[in-house]
Specification:
Blueprint lengths: L9 H5 L5 H20 L13 E4 L26 H13 L4 E4 L11 H10 L3 E6 L4 H7 L8 E5 L5 H8 L7 H5 L1 H8 L4 E8 L5 E2 L2 E2 L7 H10 L4 E6 L2 E2 L6 E2 L9 H16 L7 E4 L1 H7 L19 E5 L2 E3 L11 E3 L7 H17 L2 H4 L8 H12 L19
Parallel strand pairs: 1-2, 1-12, 2-3, 3-4, 4-5, 5-8, 8-11
Antiparallel strand pairs: 6-7, 9-10, 12-13, 13-14
Length: 409
């Protein structure tokens, strides 16, 4: 479930009995492909598989103008899904083993006119469903939450403790206060208490910028934001660092050295605030630091920028948007990371072609170069998969675990 301390432990998730066969198929195919290439013979066909988990962007429309938005360039493009193909794609993906969908990014998902219907449809397909939203449409979330169940979750991107800072950072198109957004949470919890609801706080610092736009600092509001989260009955308060786009290839990177203060001072302020926020924890309220925030605090984020040449997670987790299918949430909308078109999972023939395109993408996308500055959440899992590919005999030594965690990747 989102907010749990193992949310980014993707290896543990992949060791679950329902996920492991897909991992084994991928590892054995990669091993055989490398052997065939070395022998100068034709590569084996890619496994007949689909991702275990996707990010689904229902729309590119957004009703905010956030200064720190990582998807700024692809918002409000008016590009839309063919809804019949989208439904067919989701049905085929679920039938072939996809386990989870995160409705997130590239726009505000609740702005889609049939958002609630899509949530209902995803649950009818037996999928785990998560929602990342700006919280501006509480009535829509209230209508959707009746279809959710554990381990489904909802996370609100709020990033501030006061309405003044919220307004400056998010700039909603219509007047909407932070209190008005948070006031929906008790109603959501009353309607369905099984769904965890999180308060997301992207911590920002002076000197950070999106292109030429300076980012408003919010470090000093971290504690009062956590207090607000507990007051309004959120289940957890999630803290993560500001990310920006690299200029040459649009990779999503963390650049703490852009801080106007000394980096050590910025990190000290963040650690002090997080420690104070953690004192607010109760049996029903958690304060959670993302993996990349922990790496920032320990000043070890560069360790997660040394990537294997191939990103293996793109076979297990992809992003489906109106612009196409992409290999990573960090490259949403970036041309070089586009695997196929938005409708290319809608039929057996389309899926077969997409599997071949994915095989080509895995071969040609050099993560050690393209992601050399990316503090990748999938770094450890990619290296683990690479180890299994290099030594497939280790597969037999691995013990799977019964399904129990979520399968959001």
């Amino acid at each position: 479930m989102d907010g749990a301390h193992d949310f980014h432990d993707f290896r543990a998730k992949l060791l679950q009995e329902s996920a492991w066969p897909k991992v084994v198929d991928y590892v054995r195919w990669q091993h055989d492909r490398i052997a065939a290439k070395s022998a100068g013979i034709a590569s084996p066909l890619p496994p007949d598989t689909v991702p275990l988990s996707i990010n689904l962007d229902l729309t590119t429309a957004c009703n905010y103008q956030c200064d720190h938005c990582i998807d700024w360039e692809i918002l409000n493009s008016k590009k839309k899904h063919d809804e019949n193909k989208l439904r067919d794609s989701l049905r085929e993906l679920a039938r072939r083993g996809m386990k989870s969908v995160i409705l997130i990014g590239g726009g505000e998902p609740t702005l889609h006119p049939r958002f609630v219907e899509f949530v209902q449809y995803l649950k009818q397909l037996g999928l785990e469903v998560a929602i990342v939203t700006n919280g501006s449409r509480g009535e829509t979330l209230l209508a959707a939450i009746e279809y959710l169940e554990g381990p489904d979750w909802i996370r609100l991107s709020l990033d501030a403790g006061t309405d003044e800072t919220f307004q400056r950072m998010h700039r909603p198109h219509q007047r909407l206060t932070l209190d008005e957004i948070c006031a929906w949470v008790p109603q959501l919890k009353e309607k369905n208490s099984s769904v965890r609801i999180g308060y997301s706080f992207v911590v920002t610092w002076k000197g950070a910028a999106r292109e030429e736009v300076p980012i408003i600092e919010n470090i000093d509001e971290l504690v009062i934001a956590a207090e607000r989260a507990r007051k309004y009955q959120f289940d957890y308060f999630s803290v993560k660092p500001f990310l920006m786009r690299q200029q040459d290839n649009h990779a999503e990177i963390m650049d703490p050295q852009s801080a106007a203060q000394q980096l050590n001072d910025v990190i000290a302020r963040i650690k002090k605030s997080v420690a104070e926020a953690k004192r607010l924890e109760t049996d029903s309220f958690d304060v959670v630091e993302s993996t990349n925030l922990q790496l920032l605090e320990n000043q070890t984020w560069r360790d997660y920028t040394r990537q294997p040449s191939q990103c293996h997670m793109q076979a297990l987790r992809q992003v489906l948007t109106p612009h196409g299918i992409f290999n990573c949430p960090g490259y949403r909308g970036v041309a070089m990371a586009r695997i196929a078109g938005p409708g290319d999972y809608c039929s057996e023939a389309a899926i077969h072609q997409t599997q071949h395109k994915l095989a080509d993408a895995i071969e040609t996308f050099d993560a050690s170069l393209q992601c050399a500055n990316v503090t990748c959440l999938y770094n450890a899992t990619n290296w683990w998969l690479q180890e299994l590919i290099d030594h497939p005999e280790k597969i037999e030594q691995i013990e799977t675990v019964p399904d129990g965690s979520d399968l959001f990747l």
